[in-house]
Specification:
heterodimer, A: alpha/beta, Peroxisomal Thiolase, Chain A, domain 1, 2 domains, 10-stranded mixed sheet, 3-stranded mixed sheet, 15 helices, 20% strand, globular, B: mainly alpha, Non-ribosomal Peptide Synthetase Peptidyl Carrier Protein, Chain A
Chain lengths: 416, 83
Amino acid sequence: MTSSDRDDNRIVITGVGLTSPIGDNLADLRANLLAGKSGVSRFETRYMPPVLAGVCHFDTLKYQKRKEVRRGTRAGSVAIYCANEAVIDSGLDWENIDRSRVGVYLGITEHGNVETENEIYEISQFGNDTSVWSHHHNPRTVANSPAGEVTLSLGITGPHLTVGAACAAGNAGFIQGVQMLRLGEVDQAIAGGVSESIHTFGIFASFKSQNALAEHEDPAKACRPFDTGRTGIVVAEGGGICTLERLPDALARGAKIYGEIVGYAMNSDATDFVLPDRGRQAECIRLALKRAGMTPDDIDLVSSHATATEQGDIEESTAIHEVFKDSRKVVVNNTKSFIGHAMGAAGAIELLGNLPAFDDGIAHATINLDSPDPRIPLTCIVANQPRHLGSVSCILNNSFGMLGINSTVIVRKYEG
Amino acid sequence: MAPEQIRQVVLDILAKIAPDEDLSDLDDTVAFREQMELDSMDFLDIVMELRKLYRIQIPEEDYTNLVTMQSTVDYLTPLLKDA
């Protein structure tokens, strides 16, 4: 194998597009993460008193006509916004590249619940007459819908698919993109994760029935990973998408390189529908390190998945501690404490929001960590205030989900 | 419902399903699809909206009557005479 062949297996992030409850681009998200600003607010949903949620405020009409917004889905609008932003940010000569060689790989926690719930509500206004059930329902609810909407928006004729991976989906989208580039299936991957989940009452009602829905009189204090005062999950919407390319291609066109995806892993607990498993999570982290050719000492920052559920926080922190207990430099932070749990977008937004640490050397905080749960074995959590680390070379991003799906992605600063 | 009222109903439906279009100079004698971006799914939206608003079922073989504003109003006038 030549060095050129080896470099073709090196996949780098060259463009970032995102929307989150605290920013519709990376600069704004980063500024608000460093400022400790929460994006959680009261949100109206059907059949329930107002809930707490992370709501995005991006301009849907920036890249879509009103008719396209009406015909498509919220997840599609999120994906179109983020994908267009990423492509523009990448500096790719979009009009002249071969768009049959572009692939779209988007992680989703679920898709179709929002649209189905809307139709059920609509026909209920007509005595449950199914003849008023929309002909748009099927194209809106096919599982590839958000990724397909991106291809329509950007004229991409290469492959597209969504990756259903519960709340590990953001990482799973990145991983799929990396794999397809390494296989030579595509030359550019538009990869990440999206979520529209706050627009279905069902996700709130289900977490409520599970005694896992956060509530707090002050929305900004509602999401409290690792804290004894935690009351559960704050559901958020959002999207995090990047352009991925092979390193030689990125270098040849002088692209800005945010970082290199040097390791990843996914595995399954095979133990429970909803309860996480520290053993398999630790295995997932170790496998990602092994594939990256790294040891725990190489990681500067762990972006944790913790959702502010009791068992979830304890299991993940125990897994991280088991792997990193001898590390002298690693710190752990958590983005959900700011914006809530963006489901399919969570892993993507959380990783992308940490990438500027390569330049500013700062780990953003985990906010609302006023009374650390003594059962959390970690002593390296960045609590309440951002921490200057000096330099950051490697970030490890965890994302885990229901049915025991685990994912870890490792990104290294590109230094030539 | 008088033909002029029916025309306004159809115009309101078009404004809803094709919100990017300027309908102020719509020619009632020219096919909708020659004057605006309207595909088959949009066309079904017109049928659906009429169904929701007035509980009228328009059979598929009658869709050809909904080509222009004039033909649509002519077709709907007897159906909506009591609306």
